[in-house]
């Protein structure tokens, strides 16, 4: 599990977490016994605070799941929420990104950002949840290609249309 940010204004060259317009979200990737990725859970958050993480963990994670994170302070809330939490302190740089426990979440984060910016070009925090849900839907079905079209048709037939006025409402 890791913290991430989408979007943001780059005209002033600012690329850090506190750049204007960035949308914070958490990413969790479950792995199987062989170590490969199975499913991704992506959820926008108001910020990376213990209260927000504890509240969200009940919705995002399977009860009692083993969750591996970096040393960010807010992740300690996972242990208090009933999960087996293991924090691995990392520094920064390419070596830390490639550490085995973080390989799939970091690969997924790179794929998310490439897919969204390659498709949408611009991302506003108002619609981050929809972008993330769309990516997660495709990601969680990438090993089940024979079911993609039938599930898409099922979802499309059962989902109410969203009028443009409601889609852009802030």
Please give the number of β-strands.
5
- Output the strand order for the largest sheet: 1-2-3
CATH topology: Nucleotidyltransferase, domain 5
Terminus-to-terminus distance:
29 Å
Given this structure, which CATH class is correct?
Alpha Beta
Uncertain residue ranges: none
How would you portray this structure in words?
The chain has 170 residues and is an alpha+beta fold. 41% of the residues lie in helices and 18% in strands. Strands 1-2-3 form a three-stranded antiparallel beta sheet. Strands 4-5 form a two-stranded parallel ribbon. It has a single domain, classed as Nucleotidyltransferase, domain 5.
Map the helices and strands.
Elements: E1 2-6, E2 23-31, E3 37-44, H1 50-60, E4 66-69, H2 76-80, E5 84-87, H3 94-97, H4 103-120, H5 128-139, H6 145-158, H7 164-168
Parallel strand pairs: 4-5
Antiparallel strand pairs: 1-2, 2-3
What are the salient characteristics of this protein?
Nucleotidyltransferase, domain 5; 170 residues; globular; 7 helices; alpha+beta; 5 strands; two-stranded parallel sheet; single chain; three-stranded antiparallel beta sheet
Brief rundown of the structure:
The protein has helices at about 50-60, 75-80, 95, 105-120, 130-140, 145-160, 165-170; strands spanning about 1-5, 25-30, 35-45, 65-70, 85. Helix content is about 40%, strand content about 20%.
